[in-house]
Structure formats: structure tokens, C-alpha cells
Q: What sequence folds into this?
């Protein structure tokens, strides 16, 4: 059988570290309690200090709430029988509640909460236009007025403006001066127009002269001239 070479070392360490007797079980001799000191009833409950004489002599304050044993004296002199008879004689008889019958067997239900009675016409706000509708109508009316104002302003900007006499004469003089210059250029053209460029240049000058003559004639013919504001 195998025997470790460290066996004597382990045995020596075990004996060295071995503790004394009764280390985990308490001391060997314990004082035995006396038989006269047995546990009695209520012996472990906390005991209150005795009351002082000053507290005993004080009187209890008067209670503002009546005691449970208090019974007030009730003196009733009313004759309930006669009072009930008078109330019945003078009372107004109850009106029958309207019912609605909807079947052959006579099944009926109250007419008022059924929804068949037009109670809504008795409301204070019946027939009154709601506030949100009036507010919406005012907003729509305001937007329409703003739109009309913007259109009028645009029309005023685009409206025709009359020319003064001084401006009319200045425009006439300028048109006549342009006509003279273009006419001079037209008269200085060569007699023979054998190229395409010469033909196009001659047609362009003729168109300008015709347009200037038309404008001069229109301004001279009408004294009141209006121009558009762009």
C-alpha cells in the first residue's frame, strides 16, 4: 500500500494545531440555578412606574360631548293624524304622466325621456346662431374685404395714366426726329439691292418708318392720350 512521505509532517501539524478540551462546548462546570428561582407568570412583562399622588388628585375635565347614556326629553304636541288629513285635503292631485304605447300587448314607456317630445324648442338658445358660426362668418367677410382691397389696389396700379401736353409734344418731337433719322438712312441706301442683306435692311427700315408714321398720326389725331402703368 502507498504511504506518503509527508505523513509524519501532517501528523505533527495536526497535533500542534489541536485546541484544548471543551473549547466549542463551553466551560466544564456551570452554576446550577436554584429551585426557588423558577419562572413565574407575567414576570418578563415591563412594569410601569407607580402613579404620583398629584396626578390622582387632579379632576377630569368636563366633557363637551354628551355621554352615551344621555337621553334628551322630547315633548311632542303635534297631532300627526290631523296634519296628514289637512295636507291631503289641501294638496293638489298629481297629474298623470304621459305614456307612449307602441305594441298591441300594451307595452308602454314614458313619453318625456323617449325623445318624441320636442323639448329642444324650449331652450333659451333655440334658434340662436352659434358663436363659432358668427366668428367664422366675420373671418370670411374680413378675408373677402381684404381680397377686394388688394384687387382694387392692383387695378389702380395698372390703370391708364393721361399724358400732359408737355409730355405729348416731347413724344411727338422725339418720334419725328427718329423718323427723320431713319428716313435719311433709307434714302442713303443703294439703288440696286442685289444681295439678301440689302433687301432685309431695306425692309427693316420700311417697317420702322411705317410704325413711326402710324404713331405720329395717332398722337396728332387724339389730344387725350393715356398710357398704362407697368
A:
Amino acid at each position: 500500500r502507498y504511504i506518503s512521505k509527508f505523513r509524519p509532517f501532517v501528523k505533527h501539524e495536526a497535533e500542534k494545531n489541536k485546541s484544548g478540551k471543551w473549547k466549542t462546548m463551553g466551560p466544564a462546570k456551570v452554576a446550577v440555578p436554584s429551585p426557588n428561582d423558577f419562572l413565574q407568570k407575567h414576570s418578563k412583562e415591563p412594569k410601569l412606574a407607580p402613579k404620583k399622588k398629584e396626578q390622582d388628585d387632579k379632576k377630569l375635565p368636563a366633557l363637551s360631548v354628551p355621554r352615551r347614556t344621555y337621553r334628551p326629553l322630547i315633548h311632542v304636541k303635534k297631532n300627526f293624524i290631523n296634519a296628514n288629513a289637512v295636507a291631503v285635503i289641501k294638496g293638489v292631485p298629481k297629474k298623470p304622466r304621459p305614456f307612449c304605447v307602441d305594441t298591441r300587448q300594451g307595452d308602454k314607456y314614458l313619453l318625456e325621456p323617449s325623445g318624441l317630445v320636442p323639448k329642444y324648442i324650449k331652450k333659451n338658445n333655440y334658434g340662436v346662431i352659434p358663436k363659432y358660426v358668427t366668428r367664422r362668418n366675420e373671418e370670411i367677410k374680413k378675408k373677402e374685404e381684404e381680397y377686394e382691397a388688394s384687387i382694387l389696389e392692383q387695378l389702380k396700379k395698372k390703370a391708364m395714366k393721361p399724358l400732359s401736353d408737355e409730355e405729348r409734344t416731347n413724344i411727338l418731337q422725339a418720334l419725328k426726329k427718329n423718323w427723320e433719322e431713319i428716313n435719311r438712312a433709307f434714302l442713303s441706301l443703294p439703288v440696286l439691292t442685289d444681295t439678301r442683306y440689302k433687301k432685309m435692311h431695306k425692309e427693316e427700315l420700311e417697317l420702322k418708318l411705317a410704325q413711326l408714321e402710324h404713331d405720329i398720326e395717332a398722337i396728332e389725331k387724339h389730344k387725350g392720350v393715356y398710357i398704362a402703368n407697368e
